[in-house]
Specification:
- With about 700 residues, this protein is of the alpha+beta class.
- About 35% of the residues lie in helices and about 20% in strands.
- The protein contains 26 helices and 24 strands.
- The strands form seven sheets. The chain has a five-stranded mixed sheet with strand order 2-11-10-3-9.
- It is globular, with a radius of gyration of 26 Å.
- The two termini are about 45 Å apart.
- About 40% of the residues are buried.
Amino acid sequence: MNTPPDKFTEEEAKAELAHLAETLQNANSAYHGDDAPTMSDADYDALKRRNQEIETLFPHLKRADSPSEQVGAAPSEGFSKVTHARRMMSLGNAFTDDDVADFVASVRSYLGLSDTAPLPITAEPKIDGLSLSLRYEDGILVQAATRGDGSVGENVTANARTVSDIPLQIDRPGLLEVRGEVYMTHSAFTQLNARQDAAGKKIFANPRNAAAGSLRQLDPKITAARPLQFFAYAWGELDTPLATSQFDALAALQSLGFQTNPLTRRCETVPELLNHYRAIEQQRADLGYDIDGVVYKVDDLALQSRLGFRSTTPRWAIAHKFPAERAWTLLEAIDIQVGRTGALSPVARLTPVTVGGVVVSNATLHNEDYIAGRSADGSTIRDGRDIRAGDWVQVYRAGDVIPKIAEVDLSRRPEQSQAYTFPDHCPICGSAAIREEGDAVRRCTGGIICDAQAVEKLKHFVSRGAFDIEGLGAKQVEAFRNDGWIREPADIFTLRARYGPGQLTQLKNREGWGAKSADNLFDAIDARRNIPLQRLIFALGIRHVGEVAAKLMARSYHSWDSFAAAIDGAAEKHGDAWDGLLAIDGVGETLASALVTAFAQPAERASIDRLVAELDVQDEAAPTNHDSPVAGKTVVFTGSLEKMTRAEAKARAEALGAKVAGSVSGKTDLLVAGPGAGSKAKKAAELGIATIDEDGWLEMIDGL
């Protein structure tokens, strides 16, 4: 759907947010988790920005699995895991001068600063590499970890010690965690690919992928042979501050022996920031390494602390991205892929073309409206020019493989070309593919009889954020299903009984399997019978329920029995259970309806019940903070707050262990009501819920 967000009806906005959540979650996992991007930076950034625009216009429709709540991807099982003492966050994006001005204005508004109050901000190149955290204890490098999903990364200490820019020892006692980016220069990348080609090995698509793949080698000797470098730009846990400002802290890191980017500047105004952005952009081609924008950070560290963080991004920093690069090529064919939710996704197969130094051969075509040159409401895009096989198309990217089609050259269209007819039946199972009102995509109605959906659901079930069973990845699941060994998730946990002792030959005689590997697989499966609640909910593959939504459900209901009972109780979409589901901050009717619908389908519910019967589901502990009077309680804010912004109040409550809800219900423990409080205050009074004003709230949290 390419309708301008401000032209959306509410139903269109819901549908587009659902499509964006699914598309961006898949792209995020491929980029961060597999070092195998399926979408260009430009396409990814454009979709995230569109998502943010819709959420801004329709804040009540923000999904629990919103892409704005996602960071990175789960760490690989090839390395031991490291839990970051302080989360490694991603950055929000700016694309225009106005976006930068809005960022600065939002910082001033949050802090209550006037337009004339000093607000120095640093500007530095955004390195296109792999984020790395280095932990030093009494001056010795003791641990190095990738970002992973922001909370848990991969232990790559042995590999990091081979990078020449990373000091093994520094002159600083105590604890210091240095963060930065591992990257590869253009010349080193060219030389590496030449060696790879001569040896008949994998050719890397770009320096970022080469750097990530090199650092994540299981054999440190391979990493040592790869020409990696490191820029330091931040820090995590530390026992004494480096400085009082971002700029001076970078200088302190440089004095300890770390490389920091020489193009970093401290600016006083928005025009200074933009001038430095353009200066860096002009030098981009001559730097010798890839950058994809400029990062702005509030310089005063005390102000950074006050600004704090959103769920995945700091309020005190933003990345100003560079425009995308473009090239023309031939669109050879349009293929249809069927996802786990039945979505029919068109993909353009391109004659390979080099865009910004990377060879690309595929492009997303979004949906049938995009191909036809129109938006969902019938208005035109590309001046109404459709896209056909045989067309010459302009594609663009900013750093990775699969681009977006930006334009069509009608002067080069073959005379015999025909408009593309989007299928109205699933190409896999033949079931009708319908497009519901307000939905941007067609979906196969075959459900569990559709092999494509069944296979994709099983692949999702064993993915890293879900059950993540060692030795049972997407390829093995697909092979086992094709052979009839597994039809649904519960079948995975009965494999040992069916193909184990007495029948082991059926597995060990498969190509690539032996008795030992078969036993290892059965053991790995059994190890996953004990599973956290949030992983189970995510693994079910219910439409609209991503990792963030699954975590939200787990934190709200704590146990599988409570969760299942609540969803069953909400089946009629009214009553206490339904109201309680919608009262969860971040849950809208789209997500709630998806859960209720999935649990109400007899076949799907029976499949879920068979699965749960094989598992020992871990309860999600309620948040605790014994020093906080709101720990574990549900708090609702309403009306105008005068001494802190609503965002700051919500962030403080969550930091103290409270759950912030968007509406008042019987489960609400406390209402904080400012001037102008209306229906929420009235309902709280009717329900006998404790209500305090802003002064009472500030007094309650004073000193915490």
